[in-house]
Amino acid sequence: MPGVGLPPLEQNLPPIVLRNYAKWVDHEEVRPGVLKHVAESGEECYTVRAGMPTNARVSTVLARRIADLADDFAGGHLRFTRRHSLELVGVDPARIDELIERLRGLGLPVGGTGRTFRNTVSCTGWIHCQFAATDAPAVAKAISDELYEDFLTERYPAKLKISISGCVNQCGEGSTADIGIVGIHRDLPRVIDEEVARCEIPLIVSVCPTGAIRPKPPKSVQVDPERCIHCVACAAPCQGMQIGDPETDGLAVVVGGKAGNSGNGPAFAKFVIPYLPNTPPRWPEVTRAVRQIVEVWVQGARRDERIGDWIARIGWDKFFQKAGLPMSDKLLDGYVLWPMSARTGVRFHW
C-alpha cells in the first residue's frame, strides 16, 4: 500500500455502487436478509446480509471461505456492518437463493434486516480484557441462539438491537441498544500494596470518579467502601488495583437505548434488572429475562415502535408491570440533563 493510511474508499466499492454513488433513490427489503437499492439510472443493487459469530471472531479458514463466496457472487466485494453482520453487495438476483444456501452451509444464517432481531454486538469480555465481569461474547451467543428464529423472520414491531458490555466501561455499547447486558462488579478493588508501590499514586487517586481512593502511607492507597461504585477505572493505571470475583460478579439488564434519530430520538438505556448471576455456558437467567422483555414488547408495541419509544408511550411503571419485574427508585435515574449529554456525544447529534 503506497503512502500512509487506508486505501481510497473507491478501491473497495463494487462497480454498481461506484456507477451510482450518491444517486440512490429508493430501497426495499425483499425478504429478511435481502435488500434491493434502486438508483436514478434504474439499476438495482441486491445485498445479502448474514449473521456472523459474536465479537466478529472468525478463523482464517472461515474468512477464506467467505472471501471465496464474495469472489463467486459479488465480484470480490464484501463489507461488515457496525453490528458485525456480513454483507455481500451487488449479487445477481437470480443467484440469491444459491448464495443463501452456501452461506447456511458455512453456518451463517441470512436475515437481520427490517423488523427482525439484528446481529448481537459485544466487547471481548473474558477473552482478553482484565476489566470484564462476564464473558460478553458467550452471553451474546446464548442470546442469539435464544432469538435465532427472530433473526430469520419478521415478527417484531420494529428492529431489535441487543448489545453486551463486559463491564460498565460499555465498550460493547449496551447502553445504546434496545436491550443491553452489562457486566457488573460488586466487590471492592483489592489493593496489592507491593504492586501499587510501583505505580503512580496520584494517577490512581485522580481517576476515581467518586473520590473513593485516598493515599495510604508510605506508598499505597485505600478504598472507601461507601463511595466506591465498582467502575474499574482504578484497575487501568495499576495492576495492583485488582477487581473481579467469580462469586459476586454478574450482569445487569438495561432497556430503552437507541442511537438513531427516529421516534423519540437517541436515548440512554435504563437499568431494569440490577443483578443476574454468571451462569455459563448458557446464561439461562439472562436469556429468560431477554425473552420476557421481548415478548411483552411484541404484544404491546405499535408498528415501527422500538422498545424505548414504546416505554416512553406507556410509561416506565406500566413497563415494569407488563414485564413482571420489580420496580425500585434505585433503578431509574434522575439525571435530567441526559438528552443534552446524549445528543452532543461522538455518535449522537442534535
Report on this structure.
This protein has 350 residues and is α+β, with helices and mostly antiparallel strands. The protein folds into 3 domains: 9-105, Alpha-Beta Plaits (2-Layer Sandwich); 121-185 and 247-343, Sulfite Reductase Hemoprotein, domain 1 (2-Layer Sandwich), CATH 3.30.413.10; 190-242, Alpha-Beta Plaits (2-Layer Sandwich), CATH 3.30.70.20. The protein is 27% helix and 19% strand. The chain has helices spanning 15-19, 60-73, 96-105, 136-146, 148-152, 193-196, 201-207, 284-300, 307-314, 316-323, 338-343, and strands spanning 24-31, 34-39, 44-50, 79-80, 86-89, 121-122, 162-165, 179-184, 190-191, 213-216, 220-223, 241-242, 250-255, 270-277. The strands form 4 sheets. It has a 5-stranded antiparallel beta sheet, covered by helices on one side. A hairpin with a 2-residue loop joins strand 1 and strand 2. It starts with 14 loop residues before the first helix and ends in a 7-residue tail after the last helix.
